[in-house]
Specification:
Helices cover 53% and strands 11% of the residues. The chain has 910 residues and is α/β, with parallel strands linked by helices.
Length: 910
Amino acid sequence: MLGNILKKIFGSRNDRMIKQYSQTVQIINALESSIQGLSDTDLRAKTDEFRQRIQNGESLGALLPEAFAVVREAGKRVLEMRHFDVQLIGGMVLHEGKISEMRTGEGKTLMATLPAYLNALSGSGVHIVTVNDYLAKRDADWMGKIYQFLGMSVGVIYAQMPFNEKQAAYAADITYGTNNEYGFDYLRDNMVTHPSERVQRMLNFAIVDEVDSILIDEARTPLIISGQAEGDTEIYVRINALIPKLIRQEAEDKPGDYSVDEKSHQVTLSEAGFEHAEKLLTGAGLLKHGTSLYDPENINLIHHLNAGLRAHSLYFLDQHYVVQNGEVVIVDEFTGRLMAGRRWSDGLHQAVEAKEGVVIQKENQTLASITFQNYFRMYQKLSGMTGTADTEAAEFQQIYGLETVIIPTHRSMIREDRMDLVFRTTQEKYAAIIHGIKECYEAGQPVLVGTTSIENNELLSKLLNQEKLPHQVLNAKQHASEATIVEQAGRPKMITIATNMAGRGTDIVLGGNPEPEIERIKHDEKLTTEAKEKLIHEIYEKWKVTHADVLRKGGLHIIGTERHESRRIDNQLRGRSGRQGDPGSSRFYLSLEDSLLRIFASDRVANIMKRLKMPEGEAIEHPWVTRAIENAQRKVEARNFDMRKQLLEYDDVANDQRQVIYQQRNELLESERDISETIAAIRENVLNDLFNQYIPAGSVEEQWDVVGLEKTLAAEYQLHFSVQKWLEQEPELHEENLSQRIIELATKQYQEKVEKVGTEIMHHYERVVMLQVLDSHWREHLAALDHLRQGIHLRGYAQKNPKQEYKREAFELFTRMLEEIKTEVTKILLTVQIKNEQQVEAASESLRSPENVQLHHADYNEVLDEEAGYVRNQNEKTQPFVRHSDKIGRNQPCPCGSGKKYKQCHGKIK
């Protein structure tokens, strides 16, 4: 109550910030006339002037008004587009490392040029992040004209790009690319064997377009680079044949072998189901007679069985994936796009392939992985823009330290958002949707129908064909013609059916977009200049009439066929209508059989329908229902936030370890000096540890296992020392002197090898071995962390905190891995026999990235869901967001969490 009164008196924080930014807008506007008077050459020269002023110590903030005025003028001259005042405000918000929420059609693409230009002046580079390659290329080409006019370089990155071109694109002042490509390039840069093979520079400033889609929707799926692991794919086929023989329980207390929880995306075998599965597996020859699925050697079978059950019960054709050219291709649940080249992890993809009867690809081994959360938090400054961020403002603040600022619209929004219509059945709902589409079509009004899956998309198309209503379909299968379809969706009588409109990036122009036709005429060499001008004038005049006609008929009407579990996705669909003050309308049609209502709100809504005595076939339209649906969406959003937070907390453990490994790896690559001192320290450490195993410190001579020590030194390290003879000949030789002698003789033997082979060749080989061993053990460690994460939720049943247990065990695994690295490096260098430089080069070649590398997203939902119940019962305080430094200081606390200084803990390996 008091908060509302204060807000009325002083305005909200958002209002106060907009007021503050507006004062700077006045300064920029005051500069417009003087900047306007500059010639093209003088305007371009401003860039060099600004760079000089930065070198002289002037801050970017001090340059902002003048730099923004210069970009605005360049926009007018090159693109005939002048930045509105609200775009200047949005640009300031981005420059300050915040999220700019700007309505669809208000010009986010143009707005980004302001902070991009300003921050690129520092020379450290700016990354503009888009959701797909088409938008990256389009925006780099379109907005690149402004940057190039002002003397700045622009690059665009995309998958399968030649190395030299990609390196040049990153070296540009401003680089456009997708979130996936930036993330994968970071991982690949940390797998190279020479500094010159890297493509990225420092991570300076990122502007993330559709920031909610990238940092929220995709935050649950880590980026993974994997290679094929050894293994038999036949087991997936054999398990797949058994799955249909297992019976699904209709309800928890009903008979059956397994239950499916759609809410948490899980499949669980019942006790009877375990016994039935054991019988089936034994009969199929997969399980030995007399053994159980619980036996350690059969754990793998449970893994395969679970993957098979999930493939059959939770993943469906044309909804979660499509089969294309004999391959299973994942469909992005948020955008409806095909995710070619991506694969589900943990054998799930192979299980789906077996179910669909296509060729089964081998399971993957993780080579490197990172979440978008941890990747984007590495930037010195991060900002984002979207049409819909306010619903997740708290998450942006909590996870990324990003404040959301709502930018006022250039023109008032007059779209009419009507109340939802709720029907009892899907059949009734679709009948009403067809009726609604028909009404729009007959009135000459364009209509955009949003669906949540390819399956629903095609069902609606079929129903429209039956009614003989012409329409165009937009889903993952029509990806190539996407922009053309969207551009023309505003024509009179146009019916467009589209899967989720998130990240489409192309505005729907009322009356249709005349630009493609005009461009075609401009480039037609057969036409004279006069003919071109005449045709272009005719097209514009024709478009004006059509545009006015659509405006009169109410603009674009949006029909939602189902509520998405996120209110934000619904708002994105609505946001396609009513851009820049255009008229428009929207309505969602729902049924009690829709997944959101069925899982989260059906009882409440059904009771409301009963109370209101609604007859069959008639829709309910009531604020109570709308409120119940919004509450259901809030429940799902809260649950998804929990899961994303959990993933981040787990990945933070791996991230700290990743930082240690990548820093050591980079130091190995970049260090121009030889690493022989590091190798000597590692060798001493390893031999000391080995000595203490056989001759423990403080022990009496009778407890010493001298024979065992001699055997191990000879067999594993090629060190043939007569330790027993030394002790017999020198009775006064105590353990410290003995240990020192072994180390000295080992060092002498190694030095002889170095001199024989050549110092330079041997030092190069030392570096190669260190990298090789570090990489192979890091890959194994990532697999170990994956396995640990998958089973850690079970600790909750033993009254232990799974996250604390995960941190503790991950630290133990990491410490063990570092010890194993040291031991293996020492063994290889002491035992290897190098005859020439060619052998060293061959060893270097084997370090190159593995063959058949794939880039994909993991599916961690299952693991996170299992722990979700436990986490929600813990009242843990969320740690404040701290942006990590690029390098760990030797006297800083070690990121592993041991409490020791880095140099005394995991920095010791160096």
